[in-house]
Amino acid sequence: MNVKAEKVQLKYGKDFALKDISFELSGEKIYGLLGRNGAGKTSLLSILASFREPSSGTITINGEIPFENAKVMQQVAFLYNKDYKEESDNVIDMLEDIQRYRPNFDKNYAEYLVDRFKLDRKKPIKKFSKGMQSSLNVIMGLASRAPVTIFDEVYLGMDAPSRDIFYRELLEDQGKHPRIIILSTHLVSEMDYLFDEVMIINQGTILLHEEIDTLLAKGATITGNADLVNDFTSNKKQINMQELGTAKSVTIYGELSDDEREAALESGLDLAPVSLHELFIHLTEEEN
Amino acid sequence: MKQTRIFPKVALDMFVIQLVWTGGFLGIMFLINIVKLIIAGVQGNEVEGYFNTIFITGNIYMLIIGLLSIHFLSHYVGNGVTRKDYFIGSFLASIGIAIILPIFTIIISSLEKFVLNLASISTKVQSINEVDIDDNIIGDIVQSIIISPYVDPQDNWIMAISVLALNLYIYYLIGWLISSSFYRFDVMAGIGFILIALNFKMLKDTLLRISLELPVPGWFSWLDFLPSGMALIGVLLIIVVTVWFIRLLTKRIAIKM
User: Fold this and answer.
1) What would the pLDDT profile of A183-221 be if each residue is shown by its tens digit?
2) A242, B39, B128, B135: which sits with the fewest CB atoms below 10 Å from its CB?
3) What value of ipTM does the predicted structure carry?
4) Which of B79, B84, B183 to mutate to test the interface with A (most CBs of A within 10 A)?
């Protein structure tokens, strides 16, 4: 599978929701899509799912434009924080309906997940709590086994144990049935271990797209005597800084060579890795 | 891998859902009719037949399920179905409902007639076609909006079913057209489409009246010169144009989330 965006723009009236988005996702991996509120995550994902067309530019899935393409649209599942307040069907009816339209749908797996999330099989979905409705979205997304599966902040309202079940099942099923999974999220620190690659979107543009290990290797926090820290980081991209008396701590973004690391340690500086959560905050903060 | 056609699934699913609703509607109207029969029987009045009751209320029912039709769009696109497959599926299902509803109605109505004849209770003669044509333009317009051409099933039951099906179908289509325009545009444009839809409905009634050789009220009455065959073609054209408008509105529509 391959998903490719080229110079995608989306305008609502005069405002740009997406300014100039280009990226390529190739390979059955889990992609984390991070961005602050209003960054354009849902706009981008809704174009991928053929919910709308871009104002300009193209998105292709396996080389084909998905919009109104029956073959491609069947292979893309988009789960989001949907409003079920008028849904009087129960879980089982709902899943049976979806099964008719999703060629890879696994009914047994869906029923296993219904038990796993302890959802009431007979209760109308509109009477479910927000968290239970989110669990239903997770079940529909996982059991559809669509080659491109998109979860847009699908965990909203789910309690911590339910989210944990989601993450475990996601990893386990991805192991057995690899596909392109895109997880858009705010809960960066909780979900970072799930991602193979990370894309950060900010103000309608792609800020970065890296494999997670490469990305984390680029960040480091250097702590020590303020003068030494200043010397060491003066030619680096600084994304955060804290001072306490004569001590200073600077977070940098950019690769450090082995020689640089050694030199830092020899001069008494402390080098600590940076979490994805911190990188996300500082990189998007700086841009704003 | 061969791609299986999706619109027949949509058509079947939407037909079954709307058939269940229709069953509920016909059932409730049947119960109401029984109560009306009992009251009329006790008071010794003539009773309104089931066919006539559905002739009036069925229009509103079809308008409502037509309005609801657009809500299936988000559901289907959300499950990887194209707008085109949704459109064709909905279109086929709506024809199915417009045909099955009058058939059920005439079956129930015939049974009712049979029972009433056994009990020697007479039914009211429907006078809906005897519209009052005078110089009151407002009155004419109101009449032409609310009253559809009527054929008595006792005169010609095939014609009665066909005319009822046409009346019902236009109501479904204008419901679907109006809700599609509200989904696609803002409220002002939606109101504009309500006016267009009302005109389509009045034009269809006028043409149907001409083809059935009934009195012709309303602001399309100048079309009276048309031969009845042409008028009938005109009715079909209105249906085609309405369906085409709905397709144009929904062809590339953005799905609300």
Assistant:
1) 999 889 999 999 999 999 999 999 999 999 999 988 899
2) B135
3) 0.90
4) B79
